[in-house]
Design brief:
Arc Repressor Mutant, subunit A; 7% strand; 66% helix; two-stranded antiparallel ribbon; mainly alpha; single chain; 151 residues
């Protein structure tokens, strides 16, 4: 089979895998809005910020950012803490619940559904699947590195 034919087959199989095994939020669970996830991701990467700093980072009015932080705090995604170095400053920091929500939102496939499907495969097919996926990710990463290193 030619490379393009293999690529087409994988491209056809991937949506079928996603459709059957993707992670879903239950109706009773609070699914964070994209704006919430953006703020949580930013806090995860930057560390604690004041509301003013967060407003500057997101190019929003301080009042709008403060309201957003209030909503995030109401869902226990963030907390306001005093700066240990300057007790006058109040910092916004991501909570364990916020980190859990971020982790959940990044989970593409449902691990339990995936495990059930893998259990129905032969040991040899399981190893081939993992080896093949690793090789594909490695090859894709090599392509990214080549792109970045070109002038």
């Amino acid at each position: 089979m030619k490379h393009i034919e293999l690529a087409q087959e994988i491209a056809t199989l991937y949506p079928a895998i996603y459709q059957r095994l993707h992670a879903r939020w239950e109706k009773h669970e609070h699914r964070p809005a994209p704006e919430t996830l953006a703020v949580l991701t930013h806090l995860e990467l930057s560390g604690p910020l004041t509301v003013t700093e967060a407003a500057r980072h997101f190019k929003r009015a301080q009042s709008a950012m403060s309201e957003l932080i209030d909503r995030l705090q109401a869902h226990s995604y963030v907390d306001r803490i005093r700066d240990a170095r300057d007790r006058r400053r109040i910092l916004v920091w991501i909570t364990e619940a916020g980190l859990d929500s971020l982790k959940r939102s990044r989970q593409v496939l449902d691990v339990n559904l995936l495990a059930q499907s893998i259990e129905r495969m032969s040991p040899q097919d399981r190893h081939c699947l993992v080896d093949g996926l690793r090789a594909l990710v490695t090859a894709a990463a090599a392509k990214e590195t080549t792109k970045r290193s070109k002038p």
